[in-house]
């Protein structure tokens, strides 16, 4: 059975529960891998820098840029080109704004800690960005979504290359997911 079919049969509560479980697994995996990949935890914690100018310039602005580009894709291409099988609609359509905020924050945090904070710092930008894109396997049969996720992956990875600041990538990732989640939630 396809992933989209499985998700259609899940209640909103079950879907949220499964998403949270998967993201907690990624968070734990990030923490465990960081223990093995870094000589000292202080090395890993050095990637967290609360530089507000950097966060605005390399987190907020890139996040908003990605959302604008996604809106252009949505406007240009027919719906079937960016439809992920209804998974994102099922995930966000019946959620409160607080739920969308929570879900997208935990996704941004867990994915960025793993892909940028561990994989990119240990194996490099190209490997981390490629694995990030491949993890979004449900987009492999949707060329527009696939190109979009590849672009986003490499763009956010590049922001980390420039800044070495996980707050920038977490903020950027959160903005993209949160705003697109809101669009799905309030779409008629």
A few lines on this structure:
This protein is mostly helical.
Structure characterization notes:
- By secondary structure, this protein is mostly helical.
- It has 10 helices and no strands.
- The protein has helices spanning 3-8, 12-37, 41-45, 52-76, 79-82, 87-92, 97-123, 125-135, 143-163, 166-186.
- α9 (143-163) packs antiparallel against α10.
- The radius of gyration is 16 Å and the shape is globular.
- The mean pLDDT is 88.
Low-confidence stretches: none
Average pLDDT number: 88
Helical stretch tally:
10
Instruction: Work out the number of β strands.
Output: 0
Strand coverage percent: under 5%
What would you call the shape? globular
Q: How helix-rich are the residues, as a percent range?
A: over 70%
Distance between the termini: 29 Å
Oligomerization status of the protein chains: single chain
- The value of Rg in angstroms is 16 Å
Largest sheet data? none
């Amino acid at each position: 059975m396809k992933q989209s079919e499985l998700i259609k049969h899940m209640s909103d509560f079950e879907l949220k529960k499964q998403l949270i479980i998967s993201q907690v697994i990624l968070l734990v995996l990030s923490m465990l891998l960081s223990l093995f990949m870094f000589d000292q935890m202080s090395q890993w914690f050095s990637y967290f820098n609360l530089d507000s100018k950097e966060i605005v310039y390399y987190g907020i602005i890139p996040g908003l840029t990605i959302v604008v580009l996604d809106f252009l894709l949505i406007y240009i291409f027919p719906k079937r080109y960016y439809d992920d099988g209804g998974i994102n609609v099922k995930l966000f359509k019946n959620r409160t704004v607080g739920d969308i905020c929570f879900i997208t924050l935990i996704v941004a945090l867990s994915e960025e800690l793993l892909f940028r904070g561990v994989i990119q710092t240990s194996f490099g930008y190209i490997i981390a960005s490629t694995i990030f894109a491949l993890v979004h396997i449900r987009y492999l049969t949707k060329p527009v979504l696939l190109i979009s996720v590849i672009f986003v992956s490499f763009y956010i990875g590049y922001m980390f290359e420039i800044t070495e600041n996980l707050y920038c990538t977490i903020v950027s990732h959160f903005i993209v997911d949160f705003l697109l989640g809101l669009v799905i939630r309030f779409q008629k």
